[in-house]
């Protein structure tokens, strides 16, 4: 093994963890778990699926324990009681967004509590951080990380092959990882804590999707693509001796070690001219099966085969279900029924038209049947029924001619697994969902088995834009790959994505500020048009015309009164129209590619921005004039929004680390901007309903404030900010769009790049409270003269403070608690220090939203910068994780300086 060794970053057990990648060194960096006070309840706006699921992994020793991986949206664990998936990587932070791409998963059959994930989204410079192997000893509830000296490619070509990460089924401290980019095969002997290259492995692979691509994407060597152990060749506690490895090399695609990984050799007689996407071993019968394709996938592949290798004799046999000449697809999905090992299934993963195909053999590949056959072309006979009523948009609103059907069985079907404990249950992933069945053996009995979505809990859309109009549906979304939706119920799956036109990816959506039934959207499409209009709040759509030269959606804005539109598409310059785009006229005074938005009150005003200059139109977008430019960001992503109901009030967020980067506010239609001090970085900004009695709408940003990255809100026009997410809810990159809800105080919608749309509900749902740090003199919702003794919500007596202390989670040796300090006096607290004594000797571990010191059993906690000022009747909250050596009796002797606080 190479001398290079990677050390592990350690995170607290029992609570969600965050991670910090290594910089120039191949060493995992430790990071404290730092959870902000979770005063918000976060959930997904339900869509159910919406992206590629390239891997499903069942544990081989515990029933109902299964995991799924996505290419950009993290990993999930199956919850059998709810028949849904639980997200496991929502803690991944902004700086390590690439760790939301999961290239491989491994579940430990020796100790089912252990699960591993190899993470990293791109192997080129699109992803700034190296890959990592994450390891959990509590099924993904908490994680430790070891960064690698190279990148991994969860969203790269070949991502459906695998699994690249594997745990030795006899000696579970041993793991192998197949690396891309020529980095070879890697091994850990300490349960994933440290990794070293297996220098004896002879072939790092040589296949790339497109060698002529110079971006580092298509020309990347796809490397080592799967590892499979023959568990028969080892005993409990001893390393498995026979290990099979798949390599992205069409002439040398399978290697084997027979001495526990010390030496390796190419297996003689193997098929050539193809890549082995999967290698699955039937250890009972001694067969290694390979599914092969002429490309690495997941969406290409024109020819394929299936081969079987007899491990005892070395015999290779072509067991393909159809002749090679009759394939127009590659094979990838591959599974063995562990209850009946002679039963094998495989998929034609790249067959788009008329449908994917699934093959099944019950005699070890000697004969096959398939999920559907032609009766008399173009009619077909299916062995299955398919019910997508739980996710109705999976029909895509299509009405195809036979032999194509809707819904399809799928496409990009590289994940296929039969439950090792239940021959009737099978799951498989597609480019849009997870399908499954619970009566699979009907296939063999001659009756039809039922396929339904088994995807609830997986939310995998990439969100480009969000709009929350003041009436109609609470949310309209612009999404990658599946267009977008009108969300009338945030907790229900929409019936259908936007149609007429169907846009593959919607890049921008807008409604008319004073006429919100008028909506416009633009995006990518295989052909024209790239724009659609609605006059009924997005319920129904009609196609618009477009200027010549349009190649993509760009950004679009609707006049406040719905009387016109401004569009800045890809491929041509900014254009404007009156009516609904029957004809377009080029705008003047604004550069091609500028982002455009509308004033929310004045229908003649439109705004634009590009490369550090803000532009204003006062004639409906016909002409623009350059306005402010001093100090604004000249590079990086910039997003800006106009405040509803107020003419000329604009907020701008964006920039880059190498230049200006922050949040700016203009009240004069962009003639001048004021930078908000204290906001170090900001990437998107939006507005929601004002707090009770406040005169200004609530402002939401995704930003870095006071050194902390998060989702923030302000109820006083940016004078003070409160972080409303926590370190368990970060979702990687959230910079595309954010908007509040104009009808529900505190509600905010947040875009993610692979975890769908998140929405948060404030515990202060009536808007009557005060954000920590708010000045009571500027918050009309606070009455400094209120007598706390007359408020039934305040404790009686002379105490000027009250404290609630709640243990919110407890595990062996540890716990988590939330503390709320309320100012029940008549004057504002300008800085505070709260003290208590632990009855059972508990120790504070990590604290958020406050700074602790502890001397023996006495704890003293002081405010941080943003929550030191607490108005009368307002509260400041903080939380922490702690350790236990005995009991966990809550403290009851809280003191604010010299003042004893009431408890309750």
UniProtKB/TrEMBL annotation:
Stretches with biased composition (Low complexity): 772-798
Region (Disordered): 756-800
Signal peptide start-end: 1-21
Family matches, as SMART domains: CBD_II
Superkingdom to which the source organism belongs: Bacteria
Residues of the CBM2 domain: 794-904
Keywords: Carbohydrate metabolism, Glycosidase, Hydrolase, Polysaccharide degradation, Signal
InterPro entries registered for this protein in UniProt: CBD2 (IPR001919), CBM2/CBM3_carb-bd_dom_sf (IPR008965), CBM2_carb-bd_dom_sf (IPR012291), WD40/YVTN_repeat-like_dom_sf (IPR015943), Xyloglucanase_GH74 (IPR052025)
Ranges that cross the membrane: none
Matches recorded under Pfam families: CBM_2
PROSITE patterns in the cross-refs: CBM2
Family: Belongs to the glycosyl hydrolase 74 family.
PANTHER family hit by this protein: OLIGOXYLOGLUCAN-REDUCING END-SPECIFIC XYLOGLUCANASE-RELATED, XYLOGLUCANASE (EUROFUNG)
Protein name per UniProt: Cellulose binding domain-containing protein
